[in-house]
């Protein structure tokens, strides 16, 4: 009986040690769901990787799409911890419904440019050229941030256009041009830069008068608020700002 008791004690001791180790392992495995505007694809992919590298056991799941679609998904109950949109108006819908834990932070700025096929075969030099009916023009849909910016820019220049399609996200506009399905499109300067030699950019006069400011915020029902706050801090850190600047985003003044 003494022997059995001793063996039982040893087994219990082993079970407790293993159980504790397993619990510790689970505690170290933390996940974060980040919703981000499609135009942030390259930058946020890099920032998610650097955040994971600096936080052992953390996994960042990125969901990249048009800002309006992301906000709609959250409103319909999709789980997310952090959201970064391509404009303040779209983020305002979440603020209006008290979906954010605190006031969002502006972390980047972007403007529009015209993109064409390499060599600019249609010889586009300005917004006015986009009014040519023979041109296959693609824009973002009016309800998404890049579409709202496009409408504002065209209206200020008093240019009327007839796009052959309106896309739900800026990356789709870029894709139509790079694939040869469109002669030209209006995209963010960061998307044009990311496309490299696949497109030619045509600078728009006074484009700096229509600026999209990108806010980022933590959702009120974030599963791990501490981790979500840490990711937001990573995006707005010097490392995050350097990554954004490298991809062509303009930066707001750093917050104190």
UniProtKB/TrEMBL annotation:
Record keywords: Metal-binding, Signal
Organism: Nesterenkonia aerolata
Full protein name: Molybdate ABC transporter substrate-binding protein
Pfam families: SBP_bac_11
Family under the similarity heading: Belongs to the bacterial solute-binding protein ModA family.
InterPro entries the UniProt entry points to: ModA, ModA/WtpA
Gene: modA
């Amino acid at each position: 009986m003494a022997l059995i008791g001793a063996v039982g004690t040893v087994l219990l001791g082993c079970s407790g040690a293993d159980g504790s180790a397993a619990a510790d392992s689970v505690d170290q495995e933390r996940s974060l769901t980040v919703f981000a505007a499609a135009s942030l694809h390259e930058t946020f992919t890099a920032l998610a990787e650097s955040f994971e590298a600096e936080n052992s056991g953390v996994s960042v799941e990125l969901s990249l799409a048009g800002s309006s679609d992301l906000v709609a998904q959250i409103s319909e109950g999709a789980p997310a911890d952090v959201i970064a949109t391509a404009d303040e108006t779209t983020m305002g819908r979440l603020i209006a419904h008290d979906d954010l834990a605190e006031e969002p932070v502006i972390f980047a700025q972007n403007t529009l440019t015209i993109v064409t096929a390499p060599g600019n075969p249609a010889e586009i030099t300005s917004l006015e050229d986009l009014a040519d009916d023979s041109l296959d023009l693609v824009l973002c849909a009016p309800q998404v941030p890049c579409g709202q910016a496009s409408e504002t820019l065209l209206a200020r220049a008093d240019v009327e256009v007839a796009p052959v399609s309106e896309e739900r996200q800026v990356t789709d506009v870029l894709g139509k041009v790079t694939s040869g399905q469109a002669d030209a499109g209006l995209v963010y300067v960061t998307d044009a830069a990311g496309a490299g030699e696949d497109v030619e950019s045509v600078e728009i006069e006074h484009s700096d008068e229509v600026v999209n400011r990108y806010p980022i915020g933590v959702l009120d029902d974030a599963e791990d608020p501490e981790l979500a706050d840490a990711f937001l801090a990573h995006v707005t850190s010097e490392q995050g700002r350097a990554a954004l600047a490298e991809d062509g985003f303009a930066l707001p003044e750093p917050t104190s």
